[in-house]
């Protein structure tokens, strides 16, 4: 009987479905067989734990002295002698060099004489001249007063006689004129005395005093010029540079000797702006050099950032015992900027680079399979790393053997594998019923065959 077209199509679909099912089943069987045949990768794991971690701000630094002084000359003069050499230790105020200054000393002596002369003139003006003028003015006033009293008496006497008819009016008028003149002389003498006391004396003293002050200023200026011939250090430290020798002409502003105070050292580093926000003055820090590590303190955090490097300059100051650290050397600065409590921490070896960018960890699952997990990393301190997101406390991360591991790959703990190897070795070492080890017994049976 002939089959219809529909029945033929239906039969073809059934056969195709059966073939596909058979192929999928075989593929799954092959995948299962491959999985069963895949050897687990031995790994080491560690559990993520919560704990405190220090926020460390680190950077490369250059060492500087705590203080420095470049001794220069303020005058042009020949160098008479230099009393120190490079490497000498000096104390504040110590004489370092001597310049030639005999001409300046002579000028200072001349100014001293002029000062003494001005003082003498001041004493004369204030004690002799003024007193004489005042005495003469007082005598003139006294004479004028007596003359006025006499003129008044004459006038009054003549007025009485004129009233009695014994004296002519003209004589009375003459006496009145004489009295008025005496009164005028008296007023003039009194005004002169007031001028001597209030104006003339003060101006004379003031002029003499001004001459004294000018002479004194000139004398002090000459002494200062003489003092410039002595070059003294304002700080204690060690001589790092000596630029002149006796006989050379020192010029104003020319460096003669450089003094460095390296009893303490300052490490200057530049840190990113984001990290600098955590750094405060007074924070503890360490300065590491090839010669060792010293502990210091943050003393300066620049209030402005460098527009070119977008960094902030930070100074760390530390003691320099034995002057072991040298200015100009490079160092590594580590600043304990903050303490983060209850941070999720994992070993640094657990952090891997993700193919998709960023960072990841491999989680050790309960089914002995490794699973990839992307994480966000925070602070790093030594062998510890803070995980901000992507991992919870207690989860086990692979710390060894995770590099190149595929997602969902079979893994086993190295400790368990080592135990299995030890058990196999112990079984092989056990004696057989014949008294020979198992390995030897197997070899014997093969030989017999």
Describe this protein's structure:
There is one protein chain. A six-stranded antiparallel β-barrel has the order 2-9-12-11-10-13. Strand 14 (352-353) and strand 15 form a beta hairpin. It has 449 residues and is an alpha+beta fold. It is 41% helix and 34% strand. It contains six helices and 19 strands. The chain has three domains: 39-48 and 342-429, conserved putative lor/sdh protein from methanococcus maripaludis s2 fold; 55-68 and 261-340, Efflux pump adaptor protein, beta barrel domain (Elongation Factor Tu (Ef-tu), domain 3, Beta Barrel); 102-228, Helix Hairpins.
Could you outline the blueprint of secondary structure elements for this entry?
Layout: H1 5-37, E1 41-47, E2 49-72, E3 77-82, E4 89-90, E5 95-99, H2 102-163, H3 169-227, E6 230-232, E7 237-242, E8 249-250, E9 255-272, H4 273-276, E10 284-289, E11 292-301, E12 311-319, E13 330-347, E14 352-353, E15 359-364, E16 369-381, E17 384-389, E18 396-400, E19 409-413, H5 414-429, H6 438-448
Parallel strand pairs: 1-19
Antiparallel strand pairs: 1-18, 2-9, 2-13, 3-5, 3-8, 4-7, 5-6, 7-9, 9-12, 10-11, 10-13, 11-12, 13-17, 14-15, 15-16, 16-17, 16-19
Helix pairs in contact: 2-3
The biggest sheet, with number of strands, parallel, antiparallel or mixed sense and barrel status, is: 6 strands, antiparallel, barrel
> Rough shape?
elongated
Main sheet strand line-up: 2-9-12-11-10-13
Total discrete domains: 3
Give the C-alpha Rg. 55 Å
Mean pLDDT equals 81
| Structural class by helix and strand composition | alpha+beta
Low-confidence stretches: 429-449
What's the count of strands?
A: 19
Name of the top-level CATH class of the largest domain: Mainly Alpha
- Separation of termini? 65 Å
Strand content: 25-35%
Instruction: Provide the CATH topology of the largest domain.
Output: Helix Hairpins
Number of helices: 6
User: Could you state the order of secondary-structure elements as H and E?
Assistant: HEEEEEHHEEEEHEEEEEEEEEEHH
Proportion of residues in helical segments: 40-55%
Instruction: Quickly give the CATH architecture of the largest domain.
Output: Orthogonal Bundle
């Amino acid at each position: 009987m002939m089959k219809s077209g529909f029945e033929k199509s239906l039969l073809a679909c059934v056969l195709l479905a059966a073939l596909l099912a058979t192929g999928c089943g075989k593929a799954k069987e092959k995948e299962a067989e491959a999985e069963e045949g895949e050897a687990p990768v031995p790994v080491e794991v560690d559990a993520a734990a919560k704990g405190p971690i220090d926020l460390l701000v680190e950077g490369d630094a250059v060492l500087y002295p705590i203080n420095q002084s470049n001794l220069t000359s303020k005058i042009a003069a020949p160098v008479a002698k230099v009393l120190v050499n490079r490497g000498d230790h000096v104390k504040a105020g110590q004489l370092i060099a001597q310049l030639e200054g005999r001409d300046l000393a002579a000028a200072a002596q001349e100014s001293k004489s002029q000062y003494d002369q001005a003082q003498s003139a001041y004493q004369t003006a204030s004690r002799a001249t003024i007193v004489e003028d005042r005495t003469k003015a007082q005598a003139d006033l006294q004479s004028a007063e007596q003359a006025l009293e006499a003129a008044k008496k004459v006038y009054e006497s003549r007025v009485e006689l004129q009233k009695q008819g014994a004296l002519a009016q003209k004589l009375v008028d003459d006496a009145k004129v004489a009295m008025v003149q005496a009164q005028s002389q008296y007023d003039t003498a009194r005004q002169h005395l007031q001028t001597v006391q209030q104006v003339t004396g003060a101006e004379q003293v003031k002029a003499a005093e001004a001459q004294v002050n000018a002479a004194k200023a000139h004398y002090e200026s000459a002494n200062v010029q003489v003092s410039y011939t002595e070059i003294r250090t304002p700080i204690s430290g060690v001589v790092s540079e000596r630029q002149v020798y006796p006989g050379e002409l020192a010029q104003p502003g020319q460096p003669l000797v450089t003094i460095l105070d390296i009893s303490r050292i300052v490490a200057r580093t530049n840190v990113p702006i984001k990290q600098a926000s955590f750094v405060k003055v007074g924070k503890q820090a360490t300065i590491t050099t090839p010669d060792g590590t010293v502990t210091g303190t943050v003393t300066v955090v620049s209030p402005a950032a460098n527009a070119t490097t977008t960094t902030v300059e930070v100074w760390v100051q530390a003691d320099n015992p034995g002057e072991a650290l040298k200015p100009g050397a490079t160092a590594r600065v580590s600043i304990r900027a903050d303490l983060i409590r209850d941070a999720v921490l994992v070993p640094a070896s657990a952090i891997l680079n993700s193919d998709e960018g960023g960072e990841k960890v491999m989680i050790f699952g309960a089914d002995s399979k490794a699973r990839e997990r992307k994480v966000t990393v925070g602070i790093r301190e030594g062998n510890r790393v803070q995980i901000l997101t992507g991992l919870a406390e207690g989860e086990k991360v692979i710390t060894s053997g995770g590099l190149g591991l595929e997602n969902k790959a079979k893994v086993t703990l190295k400790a368990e594998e080592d135990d299995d190897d030890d058990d196999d070795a112990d079984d092989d070492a056990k004696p057989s019923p014949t008294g020979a080890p198992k390995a030897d017994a197997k070899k014997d049976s093969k030989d017999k065959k």
